[in-house]
């Protein structure tokens, strides 16, 4: 009986492994295909895109990207916006989460519910008043105008609030017995314990900001203020008028590098946060 259950478990484990491998191939295949396209000449791809399956390959598209493409300017814009939004969200969400989890003040629960209502409001529903407000303030085509809307994240406040609530209050009391101020308790004791949640929130915010297309398209109308997503989209009016399929894929691969780097370096924090570790 035990042997039969062991065989069944082994078979199910193998089936799960096969399914994971197949799904992994399906997800990676478009990236590999784009990389292959970026290593072929544009003239060759105009004749037959299946030529990506065989040599010769070239780095000419990447060289053209280095010497004559505005993609570096778009890259810097995206980096400034993404890092600014990530830092802002982490600071504001941590402070708000600590306040909702640890402080007593009138209307706290009502305000928290109102914050959670933000999860149900799609960005498109407020785009017109936001556009009018930023126009009146002269914030379009500025880094501040691209960053500010992303700082109001209900998800970040909710995540940090729940994480702070999961930390026993005895930790605060022990620190205060050592004459620590409330800010010192927050900064030196509790905040380091929320590192997994902050890493997860930071990665989520960075990826969202880097891949965002909707608001940068509306606010950044000047080509000098394009982010990577808007800039690359502007180069592909249609297939025939684009700068070349291989060159376009080289831009896409270059734009995706920060996403890969962030994931590789911070993956362990995502795993720790999902597993519920607080240290």
From TrEMBL:
Membrane topology, record value: Multi-pass membrane protein
Cross-referenced InterPro entries: MetI-like, MetI-like_sf
Domain ABC transmembrane type-1: 75-266
BP GO annotations: transmembrane transport
Main localization, broad class: membrane
Transmembrane portions of the chain: 15-36, 74-98, 110-131, 143-164, 185-207, 245-266
Pfam families the UniProt entry points to: BPD_transp_1
Location of the protein in the cell: Cell inner membrane; Cell membrane
Coiled-coil features, chain-numbered ranges: none
Keyword line: Cell inner membrane, Cell membrane, Membrane, Sugar transport, Transmembrane, Transmembrane helix, Transport
GO cellular component assignments: plasma membrane
Description of how the protein assembles with itself and partners: The complex is composed of two ATP-binding proteins (UgpC), two transmembrane proteins (UgpA and UgpE) and a solute-binding protein (UgpB).
Family stated for the protein in its record: Belongs to the binding-protein-dependent transport system permease family.
Function: Part of the ABC transporter complex UgpBAEC involved in sn-glycerol-3-phosphate (G3P) import. Probably responsible for the translocation of the substrate across the membrane.
Protein name, UniProt field: sn-glycerol-3-phosphate transport system permease protein UgpE
Lineage: Bacteria, Pseudomonadati, Pseudomonadota, Gammaproteobacteria, Steroidobacterales
């Amino acid at each position: 009986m035990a042997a039969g259950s062991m065989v069944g478990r082994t078979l199910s484990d193998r089936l799960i492994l096969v399914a994971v491998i197949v799904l992994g191939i399906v997800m990676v295949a478009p990236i590999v295909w784009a990389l292959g396209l970026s290593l072929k000449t544009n003239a060759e791809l105009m004749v037959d895109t299946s030529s990506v399956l065989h040599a010769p390959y070239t780095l000419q598209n990447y060289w053209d990207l280095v010497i004559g493409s505005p993609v570096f300017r778009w890259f810097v814009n995206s980096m400034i916006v993404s890092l600014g939004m990530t830092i802002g969200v982490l600071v504001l969400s941590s402070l708000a989460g600590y306040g909702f989890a640890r402080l007593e003040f009138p209307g706290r629960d009502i305000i928290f519910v109102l914050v959670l209502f933000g999860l149900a409001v799609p960005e498109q529903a407020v785009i017109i008043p936001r556009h009018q407000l930023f126009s009146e303030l002269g914030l379009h085509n500025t880094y501040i105008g691209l960053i500010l809307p992303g700082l109001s994240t209900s998800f970040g406040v909710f995540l940090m609030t729940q994480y702070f609530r999961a930390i026993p209050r005895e930790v605060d009391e022990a620190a205060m017995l050592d004459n620590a101020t409330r800010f010192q308790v927050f900064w030196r004791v509790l905040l380091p314990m929320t590192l997994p949640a902050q890493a997860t929130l930071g990665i989520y915010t960075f990826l969202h900001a880097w891949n965002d297309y909707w608001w940068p398209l509306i606010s950044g109308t000047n080509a000098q203020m394009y982010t990577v997503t808007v800039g690359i989209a502007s180069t592909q009016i249609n297939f025939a008028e684009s700068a070349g399929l291989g060159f376009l894929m080289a831009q896409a691969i270059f734009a995706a590098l920060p996403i890969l780097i962030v994931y590789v370096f911070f993956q362990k924090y995502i795993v720790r946060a999902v597993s519920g570790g607080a240290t």
